[in-house]
Amino acid sequence: QVQLVESGGGLVQAGGSLRLSCAASGQMFATGVMGWFRQASGKDEEFVAAITWKYGTTYYGDSVKGRFTISRNNARNTVDLQMNSLKPEDTAIYYCVAGRTILTIPAADEYEFWGQGTQVTVSS
User: Fold this and answer.
1) Among residues 48, 26, 43, which one has the least CA distance to residue 96?
2) Residue 121 belongs to what H/E stretch?
3) Model confidence pLDDT, tens digit, residues 63-114
4) How far apart are CA 38 and CA 21, in angstroms?
5) Hey, how many other C-beta atoms are within 10 angstroms of the C-beta on 111?
């Protein structure tokens, strides 16, 4: 079992930056993937970014490429999401996710473990 706790959300002006962190308790498997999804009010979940636990290979959703960076610390069991050049359309609840074996990185239903979410609000 893996438990995920997010931190770092908040309110920021457009063009600003925020850093989200996710602390995982429990054993992360060598084949595992951790990442972030977001859900804006009235919209479906959207893939944001993911990183493989063993090799640190990164993946990004098209809407955040070049602005967001995902990183991990295997010793601390943490994953961070650095968000730069934020836009009002980035406003959403951001969820940290983890999965043991992920075949399709952007598929939300493949991730077994989800955090409670943290609110990110970008004002124009």
Assistant:
1) 48
2) strand 118-123
3) 999 999 999 998 888 999 999 999 999 999 999 999 998 999 999 999 999 9
4) 14
5) 23
